[in-house]
Amino acid sequence: MNQLSDFHRDRVRAVLAASPLIPVITINDPDDAVPLCQALVKGGLRVLEITLRTRHGVRAIERVRQALPDVWVGAGTVTGVAQYREVEAAGAQFVITPGVTEALLEFGLTSEAPLLPGISTISELMLGYSLGYREFKFFPAEVSGGIPALKAFASPFPDVSFCPTGGIRRTTARDFLALANVSAVGGTWLMPEAAVAAKDWDAISRVVQDSLADLQVEN
Question: Which entry of 106, 124, 135, 137 is annotated as an active-site residue?
């Protein structure tokens, strides 16, 4: 059975170590992609997850990679191998899925963009674990058990770390990050809808700065 290489694991660990907060970005207006991501980086973030929840996601990854070459830019909400290939071609430096399939896990073993697979159950975790994955997205975090679930996962899988996403807010991010098996958290609160609609990029930078300050993280 093929196993995940040390190279791929090191790349995923580097992404998760680069920023305790990872914005889950949905692009509704393609013209927003670069200035929005610039605002997030100005606030102190170094990892950007651009989702495929709209048709603008792939092109946004291309544009943001060109505009911000010094930060990690990856693709989220990847649900199939065809999408995986597409975002790799667009320059995604990592891929995050909402769930797992054997095809996605197998493809991620040798892909150029390393995979952070999404799981919500022990069975899904075990499927990835058997292939060498040790870093996972926990999604949707709150409705899948939140902090108590992550604490329960730690006992049988002490060598696994998570990036919980889904329902996490600025007021709860710190509690998740206090867990020994949580490397980073993802969320949409970093980009308030009203600020994005108004193209108030300075406001978004302030939200990021304040959120990092809540964690006592030096920018």
Answer: 137
Which pLDDT tens digit goes with each residue over 142-157?
999 999 999 999 999 9
Amino acid, single-letter form, for residue 164: P
Active site residue 193: no
- What distances in angstroms separate CA 77 from CA 174, 204, 216, one per listed residue? 24, 22, 29
3-state secondary structure of 209: helix
Q: Which of 42, 49, 102, 135 is catalytic?
A: 49
pLDDT above 70 covers a percentage of the chain that reads 98
Mean pLDDT for the stretch of residues 131-137? 98
In the predicted structure, residue 218 carries a pLDDT above the cut 90? no
pTM above 0.85, yes or no: yes
Provide DSSP, 126-180. Answer: HHHHTTT--EEEETTTTTTTHHHHHHHHHTT-TT-EEEEBSS--HHHHHHHHTST
Q: Is the domain defined by 6-214 classed in CATH 3.20.20.70?
A: yes
Nearest to 173 by CA among 161, 155, 193, 189: 189
Domain ranges of the chain: 6-214
Let me know if 82 is exposed, middle or buried by CB neighbors in 10 A (0-12, 13-18, 19+).
exposed
DSSP 46: -
| Residue 151 annotated among the catalytic residues of the structure | no
Report which DSSP code applies to 30. G
